[in-house]
Amino acid sequence: MRIDVFSLFPQAFDWYRTQVHVRRAQELGHELAVWNYRDYTPLAHLQVDDTPYGGGAGMVLRIDVVCAALEAVFHEPAEGLRERRRVVELTPRGRQLDDGLAAELAQRDLVVLCGRYEGIDERVANLVTDRVSIGPYVLSGGEIAAMALVDAVLRKVEGVISNPQSVVSESHSPELGGATEYPQYTRPAEFRGWAVPEVLLSGDHGAVERWRREQVGRGFAPPRDAC
Ligand SMILES: C[S@@+](CC[C@H](N)C(=O)[O-])C[C@H]1O[C@@H](n2cnc3c(N)ncnc32)[C@H](O)[C@@H]1O
Fold it and tell me: Is the model's pTM score more than 0.90?
């Protein structure tokens, strides 16, 4: 698949793009490109935003700038992109990202529009298939949200995670009925009096399996002495 992210701060993705599973995705033929709206603005002085009609605080990313960037990259009218791709605007007003939506987004090429400041001009609704939030809180820009979304999507793409089983039965997956995974432990078996559940050391695979099934969906209790 091809993923194109549009942002005013593409350098925010530099670290993410070096991650091993992202590089593996690229080796498998998938693409992740990050574009800067500012590089394609038709306005003087590299302007990309403007004050909101009706007044109010902050600046709004202009729709003509967003269209110019999309059209420069895809060489087709911005309104038509959503016929063959999922085009996602990241916004705290959107549908909340979950495992099911990530799996859906992994089915087609994806365009991700990051906002900044007060967000993108509402007429972006004419370009997108989805408006997605990563949670009920406000970030300063769409870059962190885009990395969360792209990462959740890439984990759904075959071969990107080297051990396919670890993706199939993860927290929130259909395999676990949408519930959270069982807890994981590793060596040492005891540390500062904190012991690993005995069943995991028993070598009894059936008992381990039963214990894990019981733990699914339990989450964890907050420690009693925490503030
Ligand atoms: C400061 S926010 C704009 C908030 C907007 N004025 C509001 O109150 O809904 C700037 C940009 O950050 C991104 N953003 C912030 N919070 C987000 C969230 N929870 N999910 C997805 N994107 C978010 C969006 O791309 C948004 O356009």
Answer: yes
